Amino acid sequence: MDEAGSSASGGGFRPGVDSLDEPPNSRIFLVISKYTPESVLRERFSPFGEIQDIWVVRDKHTKESKGIAFVKFARSSQACKAMEEMHGQCLGPNDTKPIKVFIAQSRSSGSHRDVEDEELTRIFVMIPKSYTEEDLREKFKVYGDIEYCSIIKNKVTGESKGLGYVRYLKPSQAAQAIENCDRSFRAILAEPKNKASESSEQDYYSNMRQEALGHEPRINMFPFEQQSEFSSFDKNDSRGQEAISKRLSVVSRVPFTEEQLFSIFDIIPGLEYCEVQRDPYSNYGHGVVQYFNVASAIYAKYKLHGFQYPPGNRIGVSFIEDGSNATDLLRKMATQMVAAQLASMVCNNPNQQQFLQFGGSSGSQLPQIQTDVVLPSCKKKAPPETPVKERLFIVFNPHPLPLDVLEDIFCRFGNLIEVYLVSGKNVGYAKYADRISANDAIATLHGKILNGVRLKVMLADSPREESNKRQRTY
Length: 474
What we know:
Helix content: 25-40%
Shape: elongated
Number of strands: 17
Radius of gyration: 30 Å
Distance between the termini: 71 Å
Number of helices: 14
Oligomer: single chain
């Protein structure tokens, strides 16, 4: 407010403009009588905690109070408690009109918020994956009355993702939980589920994403190599000491929404989910991103750490430790990246395919299949003249696997007659002499990544259905 005057606070600590909302939700907005002096405000609100400053909004010309004031506390829980206790109360014995008290609007919130606001009562926490909802409730009930607890789980497996929500009945209880709980929980206010971003921001973000994609003409074979634009961003970054996992922490000086966070990190394939968090101690943007596989997470970390959004603001990306073995994960990703690069080279250059097949002992020692999938041992193919009982349709992303690798993969389920690729397309077929073998192949391989290529494996149309379609020429 450019028309706000302020009363001196008696020589005590006075926060600067940049620290008005440090920590967030520590400032209250008051609707009071025009005749209420600052001394009365200080007297009535000081029992709730340390007051850092008081502003009384005044008319520019007459210097008279407009009946609006702000009180800045040292802690969020103090401001929330003052709001809960003083909203609707009369300040003096001669006052007939009760005052109104809200948590003041900040740069990261769109309006003043009251005691019923869900944004102030629901917190987001990181927990051990072994925690149940009862464990979560037991840990956080010491800070106040809990309305509900919930744990985020994998929709397919039902396993905990190590994340949860706790909603309290009062904002001060949620604030006390954030301020006093163990730092390992990384408790912050949860982003409201229905908060939508402005369309102009979405358009801008979409353009940024397309620009990033447009400047990525080929896969970098050495994603671990430190890039100069990132090395200047964090001088203390030590990859050798960093815990590596599928989960990333994202920090920005500018707040962002969940849609914006998703738009950035969905550039890297394999994004499982993202969650925007609110930090009560700063106005920075905070988020958690998790990928389905560690390869995507590592690539995202070193590709997007230092990425500018908006221009001039670099985002910081770091791993969140989840107990994984960093050495094994790095080795696995390295072999997957090398295998994917080799597969791409073979697919695009037949001469290189011949070199890999006949280039000597060094080529024969290269791993044929790199994947997290547990594959059966190799089995013999069925004779070519064996009747076909089931055909599978295979889709490759981003490119087909070499034919010898495909045959090695699909023969492991037994009774494979033939596997072949469709020329010029990222699809292929596998013929089986037994339906059980074909179903086993679908169950094991569908949606999985092998040698850096994601497979979709499904039943192909029956020959009877295909007879009604235009004949293919391959």
